[in-house]
Amino acid sequence: MKKRITKKCIALALLFTLLASALAGCGPDAAEEGSVIKLGVTGAVYEELWKPTVDALAEEGITLELVQFSDFALPNNALNSGDIQMNAFQHHAYFDNDKSTHDYDITVLCDTFVIAMNLFSKHYASPADIPEGGKVAVPNDATNYGRALLLLEDAGLLTLGEYESSTPTTADITASKVELVEVNASMTYQYVDDSEIAAAVVNGNYAASYGVDPSTAIYYEEVDLSDKSFVCVVAVKTADADNETYKKVAETFCSDATKQLFDEKYKGFFIPAWDAE
After folding, report:
1. CA angle, 165 as apex, 159 and 168 as ends, to 5°?
2. How many CA atoms does the CB half-sphere of 218 hold within 13 Å?
3. pLDDT value at residue 170
4. How buried is 193 (Cβ within 10 angstroms: 0-12 exposed, 13-18 middle, 19+ buried)?
5. Distance CA 14, CA 7 (A)
6. pLDDT tens-digit readout, 235-259
7. How far apart, in whole angstroms, are the C-alpha atoms of residue 228 and residue 223?
8. CA atoms within 13 A on the CB side of 142
């Protein structure tokens, strides 16, 4: 009887050891060599932006898989639900608003860059040339819409009053020379060719996806890195904030290799922010 009990104890001990190992592999630091990390992005340009990182991580046995989403509303939901492990598509203003609105349990892992938001037109050479009542396409999500209003105010196309939120809303417009046409952010550049649209406010990542030369903008956003509102981020689930492999992914992206790509191919669209104080 004693021998049987001893054997059972040994068997149970082995079983508990195996279970403990399995559970440990499901924790925050589970992304080890040979694993696949899914990173949510929006727009084809991210395939190129992250390619140096994907290649560098592959040499260390880490597979980074980019998962494309067609709408800004999707990647944070996918991250929160565990369908992906990281995402890199949004700035602080959007992150804060989306997290608060949906009560997502996600956090910012690091700052990456600022995507310039500029005004494009194939019908007018400058904002001053746009006629009274001209239609301007703008992103329809709250934070990018507010950012577009700030750009259009700087361009002299509308006037904003005092506003309490991080970005202005329609209610904060006190005067406007133009009529705003709200569309999905990913579609704004498509309206540049529309004969009924005078101009379009376009996020740099989408403009770059269309192969647009940034020098063709008729008005440029003034980028202030001291204001983090529009600084883009890499986000993870809150429980994964200390995951060393995810930190490795972020550090590999925030490198000279990425900065070189910004300089050589995307002049004017992507401005590194990871070194900003």
Report:
1. 25
2. 22
3. 96
4. exposed
5. 11
6. 999 999 999 999 999 999 999 999 9
7. 10
8. 14
In 3D, which of 109, 106, 108 has the Cα closest to residue 238? 106
Place of tokens 């990913």: 186
pTM for the predicted model, two decimal places: 0.71
Distance CA 246, CA 7 (A): 42
Q: Which residue has the tokens 């689930």?
A: 237
Single-letter amino acid code for the residue at 250: A
- Among 117-126, 169-178, 219-228, the range scoring the smallest mean pLDDT is 219-228
Please give the distance of CA 273 from its chain centroid, rounded to a whole number.
13
Distance (Å, whole) CA 85 – CA 80:
9
φ, ψ of residue 214 in degrees (nearest 5): -60, -25
Look at strands 179-183 and 135-139 and give their pairing: parallel
Q: Are 167 and 149 in contact (CB under 8 A)?
A: yes
Nearest to 119 by CA among 90, 86, 80, 154: 154
Give one DSSP letter per residue of 196-243, joined into a string. T-SEEEEEHHHHHHTT--GGG-SB-----TT-GGGEEEEEEEGGGTT-
